[in-house]
Design goal:
The protein is α+β, with helices and mostly antiparallel strands and 349 residues long. It has 14 helices and 7 strands. The relative contact order is 0.07.
Length: 349
């Protein structure tokens, strides 16, 4: 007999390769709890955990019925229930993804460990009538996310030290998705973007760090993070330089849906511009496609030989003097090395 219990993501159970379904959520909760505790649990504890609204007699009766359901589902040999205590029977046939994750991480096999972490602990599962169980579930989920973060941080360090910046970058992205306020994760992403030649992404990640910390915590980045940004911005961090895409390259873009009239108005404004320039303001709620609309206009202009400079400004970046202008000019200078040929060296220092 083989029983596999997956709790990293929506709870799933298999017995001898076949999915197991429970007719009560309490059976799933009981199995999850028993799968992670280290010793047999008293029946009274389990009854109080899952049926707090019942008196002791009725709670124990509900526990007996749920144990019977559990035995039928995973096999009587997988469950040990004495008069006073209940536990799972551990052996080669019993496998739990959380235990596998922790075992592999403890052995230093971080890449294999994080591969088991499909999603959050017991994703989408809850017992509103059992608050103590939900508290336990929340504590377990928080602890597992911290353990995953530590494993990802170690993988980032290992891969970067080994010179595999691309793999390190993938792990760093997952790390920041797990904890968007983790400043070491932001620093790793900033540094790795730069070291893989994507300076624009490195600077954008710094801005995201500034915004996240300012919005959620009301604090600026640490000096270490700011120094890293300045080194990349000034070009003093040694990074490989990618070959820039030629201006006017025909990039494959997904179609712009529902904004034809807006794009047409912007194109007509740009096409009719003679001297003195024009200003177009694109405004609206977040997520309606303002950035994509602007990118389509810029792509249209590039394809017709226009020189395009792009800079971004955010409220939280008020302390970065001329940041958008500097970003725009440096990006353009990377695209066209001859742009600064006639500029005195002292002006570029």
């Amino acid at each position: 007999m083989a029983v596999r219990v997956r709790l990293l993501g929506p709870p799933r159970v298999e017995r001898d390769g076949a999915p197991v379904a429970f007719d009560t959520r309490k059976a799933t909760a009981l199995l999850a709890y028993l799968a992670l505790v280290d010793r047999p649990r008293p029946r009274e504890t389990l009854a109080e955990l899952l049926w707090p609204e019942h008196d002791a007699e009725h709670a124990r009766g509900a526990l007996r019925r749920t144990l019977s359901t559990l035995r039928s589902a995973i096999g009587a040999e997988a469950l040990q229930a004495t008069r006073d205590h209940v536990s799972l029977v551990w052996g080669p046939g019993m496998w739990v993804d959380v235990r596998a994750f922790r075992s592999l991480a403890g052995e230093g096999r971080q890449a294999e460990a994080v591969a088991h972490f499909a999603s959050t602990f017991m994703e989408g599962f809850g017992l509103r009538d059992a608050p103590a169980f939900e508290d336990w579930q929340r504590v377990e989920a928080d602890g597992l996310e911290r353990e995953l973060g530590a494993a990802l941080a170690q993988l980032v360090d290992e891969r970067e030290t080994a010179g595999d910046a691309v793999a390190a970058l993938a792990h760093a992205r997952r790390w920041i998705e797990l904890d968007p306020l983790n400043e070491p994760a932001h620093r790793a992403l900033i540094r790795l973007h730069a070291r893989t030649g994507n300076r624009a992404a490195a600077l954008a990640q710094y801005r995201e760090c500034v915004r996240a910390l300012g919005r959620e915590l009301g604090v600026p980045p640490l000096e270490e993070t700011t120094r890293l940004y300045e080194a990349i911005s000034e070009g003093s961090l040694e990074t490989p330089v990618p070959s820039p895409a030629p201006i006017g390259a025909n990039l494959h873009r997904t179609p712009l849906i529902g904004r034809d009239a807006d794009l047409r108005a912007l194109v007509e404004l740009w096409s009719g511009m003679k001297t003195g320039g024009r200003v177009a303001v694109i405004e609206g709620e977040a997520g309606i496609g303002k950035t994509r609309l602007a990118e389509e206009l810029l792509a249209h202009a590039r394809e017709r030989g226009a020189v395009v400079l792009v800079g971004r400004a955010f409220e939280e970046e008020g302390a970065l003097a001329y940041g958008p202008i500097v970003e725009a000019l440096r990006a353009r200078a990377r695209e066209d090395a001859g742009l600064t040929a006639a500029v005195p060296a002292r002006a570029l220092a």
